[in-house]
Design goal:
single chain, 313 residues, mainly alpha, 14 helices
Length: 313
């Protein structure tokens, strides 16, 4: 199954992978969404300018931050599937106590790699990007293509009324928690109304329904599929709180004050690179595995601009 925009996006892969197998994110040669580029201050692939006054350009920070090796790409893409296999093994062994920890790991792995796939930072072709979005979403019974459309809009417009992903930032803490059950549903409908990737969106919408049906039918033999399905669906209810409200609430008027960045030993390690939210919004071409190094290179610049990272454990 291919998407109608394969030809439009074909330019994205030009120069994406060098002879060594390492990849660089494609520049803004073709949109990842019909409405325009992905990133906020820099455009889809970013450009040579500074993302905010007083900050260096990406070229000044180092083009090595854009490189993804074949090993890094492969590891990122197989991590979610490996997590699902580990979950199946735990069910087979009767280690139910371990399954919530495994599902948490799957969530972190899926969110991290899907983020990189959406931003085209790990060197996938347009067709491979579509299949990766589908497969990564399937691991958690979500829509990877809805995420691409709405995350595109989020980077381009936040804060804005037509940013469905960023909407929870406008809510109270309790409101963001209560918004969880409808968050992904609303993102899917918003994406479907835009009229792009509808075949992918419909296939992805069928996944949770098929999993629930299969889980019920298999219940006399094993509760594993139903337990996984419920955990995946309910687990996604924390997205508005963890990925939007906490990083963005009480945002300011400048790129440096519209989101936060965290520093610590345990939480950044547990959540992989998802805690470097400010760095990502400023330099979205940098793949997640280089965000810690990007943060290190920006420390002096952030201090000069009065940016104070949030300290966590």
């Amino acid at each position: 199954m291919t998407t109608p925009d394969d030809a439009t996006d074909a330019a994205d892969t030009a120069g994406a992978t060098d002879a060594s197998g390492s990849a660089r994110p494609a520049d803004a040669a073709g949109p990842a969404d019909a409405a325009g580029p992905v990133d906020g201050p820099q455009g889809l692939g970013g450009h040579a300018g500074s993302p905010a006054p007083g900050l260096p350009t990406l070229a000044e920070l180092g083009e090595d931050l854009l490189v993804t090796t074949g090993r890094q790409r492969t590891f990122a893409l197989i991590r979610p599937g490996a997590g699902v296999l580990v979950f199946a093994g735990a069910v087979w062994l009767g280690w139910w106590w371990l399954t919530p920890v495994i599902v948490f790991g799957i969530f972190v792995a899926v969110v991290t790699v899907t983020h990189d796939v959406v931003h085209r930072t790990i060197g996938l072709s347009p067709r491979a990007t579509d299949w990766a979005l589908f497969a990564m979403g399937l691991a958690l019974l979500e829509s990877g293509h809805a995420y691409r459309a709405t995350h595109t809009q989020h980077h381009r417009l936040f804060p804005h009324p037509d940013d469905p992903e960023g909407y929870p930032a406008e809510l109270s803490l309790l409101g963001a928690v209560c918004y969880g059950p409808v968050f992904l549903v609303r993102l899917w409908f918003w994406s479907y109304r835009r009229g792009r990737d509808r075949r992918w969106l419909l296939a992805e919408a069928a996944a949770p329904l098929a999993a629930l049906t299969g889980g019920v039918l298999l219940l006399p033999y094993t509760p594993g599929l139903l337990v996984y399905t419920v955990m995946a669906i309910v687990g996604s209810w924390v997205y508005p709180l963890l990925t939007v409200y906490l990083p963005h609430h009480d945002y300011g008027d400048t790129p440096l004050t519209q989101t936060r960045t965290l520093r610590g030993r345990i939480i950044p390690a547990v959540f992989l690179e998802l805690t470097y939210h400010l760095e990502h919004h400023l330099y979205p071409r940098v793949p997640s595995h280089h965000l810690p190094e990007l943060a290190r290179r920006l420390e002096g610049h952030f201090a000069a601009q009065g940016v104070r990272p949030v300290r966590v454990v």
